[in-house]
Amino acid sequence: MEVKELTEKLIQQEFGEWLLKIRYSGPFEGEDLDVDIFLKEEPADFEDRDYRLYRFLREKGFDVLIDYKLPDDSDELLK
């Protein structure tokens, strides 16, 4: 499974009910992938979900930069 496919599957698993969209870019400077995750709101256990996502990707040998966007971050959600 390639890094983008694996990352999307994990994001859906961890943030599916809060997910608005996913935007990919990169890789940049040795990273395997850059991901912006747009959420409706931050889940109560956000830090645990973020940690599981990051840890699993690192254990598989992938360096994925993840950034989260929430509706109050700007109109960027509409782009």
Structural summary, described in words:
α1 (3-15) packs antiparallel against α2. The radius of gyration is 12 Å and the shape is globular. It has a single domain (3-72), classed as Histidine-containing Protein, Chain: A (2-Layer Sandwich). The protein is built from 2 helices and 3 strands, in the order αββαβ. The model has no long low-confidence stretch (mean pLDDT 89). Strands 1-2-3 form a 3-stranded mixed β-sheet, with helices on one face. With 79 residues, it is of the alpha+beta class. Helix content is 34%, strand content 25%. A hairpin with a 7-residue loop joins β1 and β2 (33-39).
Order of helices and strands: HEEHE
Distance between the termini: 29 Å
Number of contiguous helices: 2
- What is the residue-mean pLDDT, rounded to a whole number? 89
Contiguous low-pLDDT stretches (5 residues minimum) are none
The second-level CATH architecture is 2-Layer Sandwich
* Name of the CATH class: Alpha Beta
Q: What is the count of β-strands?
A: 3
Range of strand content: 25-35%
Which overall shape is indicated by the principal axes computed on the Cα atoms?
A: globular
The structure class reads: alpha+beta
Tell me the CATH topology: Histidine-containing Protein, Chain: A
Strands side by side in the biggest sheet: 1-2-3
Estimated helix fraction: 25-40%
Q: Measured on Cα atoms, how large is the radius of gyration? A: 12 Å
